[in-house]
Request: fold
Amino acid sequence: MDSSVARIALKRTLFAAAALTLVAMFSPLHAQESTYSSGKEAYDKLCGYCHKHEVGVGRSIQGRGLPAAFIIAIARNGLNAMPAFPESHIDDKSLELLTEYVNTLPAAPPPKPKGATP
Ligand code: HEC
Reply:
């Protein structure tokens, strides 16, 4: 085998190795690892600082029986002032656990009427 053929063969091997590494890095298997250990952890860390009753930046999403598909669609795409949460922020599995978790929480208490005496 002359040296130019050997060089081409080596280049091909390196290219294949690099390609395999890239495939491994972005494979769905890798993405399936849960970002969070529970729905509660994901909600507390990602959504709670806007959506918890005591914060009230986003309307309460707790205990309203919101369908999982609705919560997931909004989390993935964002909605007006709410940012989107791509898979690099929260994986599918954790997001699914989160949708189950928020529906186990009690609904927000009704708002106090304005001007009411404390
Ligand atoms: C930076 C603050 C912020 C964070 C963090 C946030 N949201 Fe929101 N969210 C909002 C705001 C503001 C709205 C209302 C948007 C509108 O209606 O214009 C909203 C709306 C929603 C709605 C629609 C509620 C309804 O009744 O219409 C859902 C569902 C929702 N968010 C889910 C989530 C989930 C799940 C997460 C965490 C992955 C999350 N949000 C994180 C601010 C936030």
User: Anything to note?
Assistant: The pocket of heme C is lined by residues 46-47, 49-51, 57-59, 61, 66, 71, 74-75, 79-83, 85, 90, 98 (CB under 6 Å). The radius of gyration is 23 Å.
